[in-house]
């Protein structure tokens, strides 16, 4: 998910996407711990999406 897409979302949508992304990230980590997943770069990508969403949410709260 790109930063420009994230900026267009409302606060409620950000919160929803953040919880969904956190679950996806946790699922990827668990699957990789059990048996190596085909593309481990998905874990990095998911972690960065979570960080982008959390950063935008925090930025909006501070304004």
Automatic annotation (TrEMBL):
Could you confirm whether the keyword Ribosomal protein appears in this record?
yes
Q: Where are the transmembrane segments?
A: none
Q: Name one GO cellular component term.
A: ribonucleoprotein complex
Does the keyword Calcium feature in the UniProt annotation?
A: no
> What's one Pfam family here?
Ribosomal_L29
What is one Gene Ontology biological process annotated in the Swiss-Prot or TrEMBL record?
translation
Q: Which SUPFAM superfamilies match?
A: Ribosomal protein L29 (L29p) (SSF46561)
Q: Name any one GO molecular function.
A: structural constituent of ribosome
Q: Which HAMAP family does its entry note?
A: Ribosomal_uL29 (MF_00374)
Listed name of the protein: Large ribosomal subunit protein uL29
